[in-house]
Structures are given as C-alpha cells and as structure tokens.
Specification:
169 residues, two-stranded antiparallel ribbon, Disulfide bond formation protein B, transmembrane helix, transmembrane, DsbB-like_sf
C-alpha cells in the first residue's frame, strides 16, 4: 500500500472524524463515567471538537461522494485550524495548571455535590460551579487532561493538513 493511498482525503477525513469523536467522547466518558467534573477551561477546550466534527464529516462526505477537491481541501483546512485552536487552548490551560500565568476569574471556585431534593434543584444548579482551573484533577505520565488535549489536537491537525495536501485537483 503506497503512502499516497494511505493519505488520501477519504482516509484523512475518516481518521480526523473518528479521532475527534474519540477524543471528545473520552472527555465525556471521564466526566460522566469517571466522575471528573470539568472546569470552565476544560469545557471550552471541547468546543473545537463540537464544531469540528460536523466539518470533518462534511469533508468525508465530499471526499467519498466526489465533491470538488477545493471543497474537501477547504473543509479539512478549517478542521485543522480548529484543532490548532484547540491545541492553543490546551497550552493555555496547562500553563494555568502549572502556574505559568493566571487563569480566568471564573475558574476560582470548587464544585459541590448536586442536591438530592428536587425542589432545590434549580437553586442548586444556579449556585454550583466547576472546579478550579488551576489544579489538574488527573495526571497520566505527567500530563493533565489539558496536556493530553494538546497532543491529541496536534495529531488531529496533522491528519487534517495531510488530507489537504493529498486532496489536490
């Protein structure tokens, strides 16, 4: 199998889409299954994935169904730029965690458990805030979730830009 075949726009778009879904799905899994409550910056880092997945799917559809090469290239480039933005957000958040710079003021509170009283639920939702952005809730191999997001985002950006190069007319 040649490198040109592996780096085709269809393969790049499919890998990009699957990688984005797996990354944000993993974050949601850590939140809802693992019980890790995300801070405000953690939630913001998901936005490039939420917006990028439909763009990557559109690139995949364009590549699969014979759309113009310029359209596939443009969609892959947009998704790649979104992943670079996501990497930048992750670098910022990791820097906040390591104390290199100040985080936003909205990240200074800690979360409490949600009430069990249904009558207090609305008031409870309005009074609860995510954990502080300055403390990593989990580290693996020395990297927090923010650090791993940087790595995932850069890999996904490289896949997207590889697809841009291979989607020539």
């Amino acid at each position: 199998m040649s490198f040109q075949r592996v780096s085709s726009p269809v393969v790049s778009s499919a890998l990009l889409t699957l990688g984005m879904v797996a990354t944000v799905g993993g974050a949601l899994g850590f939140e809802h299954i693992g019980g890790y409550i995300p801070c405000a910056l953690c939630l913001l880092q998901r936005d490039p994935y939420y917006y990028g997945i439909p763009v990557a799917l559109a690139a995949l559809a364009s590549a699969l169904f014979g759309g113009p090469a310029w359209l596939t290239r443009t969609l892959l480039a947009i998704a790649g730029i979104m992943m670079l933005v996501g990497a930048g957000m992750g670098v910022y958040h990791a820097g906040v965690e390591w104390g290199f710079w100040e985080g936003p003021a909205t990240c200074a509170t800690t979360a409490q458990g949600v009430t069990q009283n249904a009558g207090d639920l609305l008031a409870d939702l309005n009074s609860k805030h995510g954990p502080s952005c300055t403390e990593a809730s989990f580290r693996f191999l020395g990297l927090s979730f923010a650090g791993w997001n940087v790595i995932a985002s850069l890999i996904l950006a490289a896949i997207a830009f590889s697809g841009v190069r291979s989607a020539r007319a």
